[in-house]
Specification:
Chain A is α/β, with parallel strands linked by helices. Chain A is built from 16 helices and twelve strands. In chain A, strand 11, helix 12 and strand 12 form a beta-alpha-beta unit. Chain B folds into two domains: 158 residues, 3-Layer(aba) Sandwich (Rossmann fold); 151 residues, Glycogen Phosphorylase B (Rossmann fold, 3-Layer(aba) Sandwich). The chains are: A alpha/beta, B alpha/beta.
């Protein structure tokens, strides 16, 4: 079987490019993969296309355009695609396209809101309310076509796709785990050393983290907070630190792979918060689990699905910073709990995120997508012919039985 | 309890799985249950026929019959477990192995076309749904349970089936090895013939019938084994018991076998078993140099193993007796107790 593979790849700096860099060798050891370069299309010999779709229009716009031309299996890395759709429409001066997408999502009220955005009287929805208008409809529609299907990483996204009316093939394939890196631990102080990895912005709950860390630091002056990642425009970390009078915060900008692992390995606790969630899985959280680091996460989306013995979950509410501080204090005061969580994390990663198992699941999905329609047509046709031959003119029970055992479609 | 024991049939063929289902019915009836065998013909080719034939089981209504409820359905091998029942116990003999561990081997069925690949996956989905809905999931061997876990992530309790009832006895240790089983390539009788070619003092009786017989007879001719191998064909119960009673040891080394009754039948006749390291289920019961010999699946290694037994009659007797002690612990009382738990 030949798979045409559409994804951003390094040097593009996205979580999905790192994802594909990890997955591709394991997939290539099992099936024939042709990489489609930016703007390209699948060769005629490809049996099935695999489209990695995320919310970044620069990284994924061309992939959605290819999906429009030929259906295939869509890996939906984010359920909320508002930013992507805005880029594909408004970003190309296609106001009507944006109006249509919003109308598809939310009917006439959606279209009216979109008009407000176009007229500049409503702030950009992809910035202020993306979770209310995910705009995944068009991508899901293409995925549901014959020869297609949908891969998601979490039950959360699976449920949202089904709730939005998606009725095609659906596979939940966990994010694969990187192999343990075997790097030296960075020499950093901190008792405890709390790490947060990824872009610094509001949706990563960095303001709440800073506030929680300030509380921790008040009782534990030797605590350190390590923030690794690029600062979002306008985030003003320095101003926030000054406002809190907060010390003990270490900063590193974007770091390479080795340095990332090395820094993460030095942390006593890793924090991966997210709200609003776009439905994404966190590569940083997976890496922390690979290293057996205790995790503190938001009680949202995919993060909520992590087992309780590997992650403490912080609800996103008015007590968020206080609860987060409590979680950090709990872990700081209990080295045994950190060790137990670390061991549970390693076991969980081996059980749920094993790279080979993930690659096998991809092959199964791709094989089902490539030939499944033909198989279904033959089976249903043969059953229908047999039923007709004996005069069964109400095939509803037959259909129910076929669907029970997933032979109906 | 009224129990439907579900087992597919391949018309004009009768093997270990059929014997097991029939025995289960008899043993349930002997214990004050009311059991009946429910069977549907199965043809697994060409193409999608494997699915449409399996689907026939789904259309059966086994919740009641003749106005009386059926309390329990016990399904055995693929595709009988596709059947619907509110209390469905699966005693898994095997799945459709061509879709699993035999795929892309010479014993496989599915090619490389997208349709064939998808067909194989459809069998997996069918299994996942219909085995997953069972109220109780058991397997006839550790090997079958392990395969199920690896392939579908489902856990099954191992419930070993006792061998068929024969007049098991030991009348001595004559100088021949016995091979018992259907003659198809997976049973790997050709390996035994190759071993015979390597040691001119080895003699074999091959009991069983099957599609591989012409090829095996031709192989025997090519090896010049006249007089040292006898193809007995399908033998009756008395003759089978007699062969077990007289042989020196029993050869049983299929490729990754599900379970296989043969080792237990050999043990009950106080005969050691020669098997191979890749035989699967037999390795659950044949312990090297305790109840038999386990060798690499190569003709020269097998010939050496057989030669060892020829030259060491005391070990043959001791290992045969040890095997009998193992086999006597596998009883119908225990099996039924676990199936109905």
């Amino acid at each position: 079987m030949k798979v045409a593979y559409f994804s951003p790849f390094p040097p593009e700096r996205t979580g999905i490019s790192e994802y594909s860099e990890l997955l591709l060798p394991a997939l290539r050891s099992r099936v024939d993969v042709e990489l489609v370069s930016r703007g390209g299309s699948a060769s005629r010999g490809a049996d099935v296309c695999l489209y990695h779709v995320g919310n970044n229009p620069d990284a994924h716009g061309w992939i959605v355009e290819a999906l429009r031309k030929r259906p295939g299996v869509v890996v939906l890395h984010d359920f909320v695609l508002h930013h992507l759709v805005a880029g594909l429409t408004l970003g190309r001066r296609d106001g009507e396209g944006y109006l249509g997408a919003m109308q598809r999502e939310a009917g006439v009220p959606g279209r009216l809101l979109a008009h407000g955005v176009l007229d500049g009287v409503v702030p950009p929805l992809w910035e202020v309310r993306p979770e209310d208008f995910p705009l995944a409809g068009e991508v899901l529609e293409h995925a549901a076509k014959p020869g297609g299907g949908l891969v998601v990483h979490s039950r959360y996204v699976a449920e949202r796709a089904l709730a939005s009316g998606y009725d095609g093939r659906l596979w939940r394939i966990p994010h694969p785990a990187w192999p343990a890196p075997g790097v030296a631990t960075a020499g950093l102080d901190g008792d405890p050393l709390v790490g947060c990895f990824g872009n610094l912005n509001a949706s990563k709950r960095v303001p709440q983290l800073l506030e929680a860390f300030a509380r921790l630091r008040a009782s534990r002056p030797s605590a350190r907070l390590l923030l690794v990642g690029a600062e979002a425009p306008g985030f003003d970390l320095a101003g926030r630190l000054a406002g809190l009078g907060l010390e003990g915060v270490e900063r590193e900008d974007y770091v390479d792979e080795q340095r990332l692992w090395s820094l993460m390995a030095a942390c006593d606790v890793c924090v991966a918060l997210r709200s609003p969630t776009m439905g994404e899985t966190s590569g940083s959280a997976i890496r922390a689990l690979v290293l057996g680091r205790p995790l503190v996460v938001s009680d949202t989306g995919w993060f909520r699905e992590l087992p309780d013995d590997v992650a403490l979950k912080v609800p996103v509410d008015e007590h968020e910073a206080e609860t987060l501080a409590g979680a950090l204090e709990l872990l700081a005061a209990n080295p045994d709990a950190r060790v137990a969580m670390g061991a549970a994390a390693l076991a969980y990663v081996a059980r749920e995120h094993d790279l080979d198992r993930v690659a096998e699941a991809y092959v199964a999905a791709l094989e089902e997508a490539a030939g499944g329609d033909a198989v279904r047509d033959v089976v249903v046709g043969e059953v229908a012919n047999a039923a007709a031959a004996v005069g069964i003119d109400d095939p509803s029970e037959l259909a129910a039985r076929l669907n029970e055992v997933r032979l109906g479609g | 309890m009224r129990i439907a024991v579900c087992s597919p049939q391949v018309p004009f063929s009768h093997g270990g799985a059929e014997v097991l289902a029939e025995q289960l019915v008899d043993e349930l009836n002997a214990r004050d249950h009311e059991a009946a065998l429910v069977t549907v013909p199965f043809k697994w080719y060409p193409g999608e026929r494997v699915l449409t034939q399996a689907f026939l089981w789904r259309l059966l209504d086994l919740e009641e019959t003749d106005g009386r409820p059926i309390d329990l359905a016990i399904a055995t091998k693929f595709p009988s477990y596709v059947v619907r029942h509110p209390r469905k116990v699966v005693w898994l003999v095997h799945q459709f192995r061509q879709a699993y561990e035999l795929d892309r081997t010479e014993l496989g069925q599915f090619g490389e076309s997208p349709e064939d690949r998808a067909l194989r996956r459809a069998v997996h989905r069918l299994d996942r749904e219909t085995l997953g809905e069972a109220t109780r999931l058991c397997a006839i061997s550790r090997n079958v349970a392990d395969r199920l876990r690896r392939a579908l992530g489902l856990e099954a309790e191992v419930v070993l089936p006792p061998p068929q009832e024969l007049d098991f006895r030991c009348d001595g240790y004559e100088g021949f090895f016995l091979s018992v089983g259907r003659l198809d390539r997976a049973k790997r009788v050709d390996l035994l013939l190759d071993a015979l070619a390597a040691d001119p003092e080895l003699h074999v009786v091959v009991a069983g019938e099957g599609p591989d017989r012409p090829r095996l007879e031709e192989l025997a001719r090519r090896h010049g084994l006249d007089g040292r191998v006898r193809f007995a064909g399908r033998v009756g119960r008395e003759e089978l018991a007699d062969l077990y009673a007289r042989c020196l040891a029993v050869y049983y080394a299929p490729v990754d076998e599900d379970y296989g009754m043969v080792p237990y039948e050999a043990f009950l006749s106080e005969k050691p078993v020669v098997t191979t390291t890749d035989a699967g289920g037999p390795l659950d019961v044949v312990a090297d140099r305790t109840t038999g010999l386990v060798c690499a699946p190569r003709a020269d290694d097998l010939a050496h193993a057989c030669r060892f037994l020829l030259d060491h009659p005391d070990d043959v007797r001791a290992w045969g007796r040890a095997g009998k002690a193992v086999a006597e612990q596998v009883t119908w009382d225990h099996a039924i107790d676990r199936l109905l738990a």
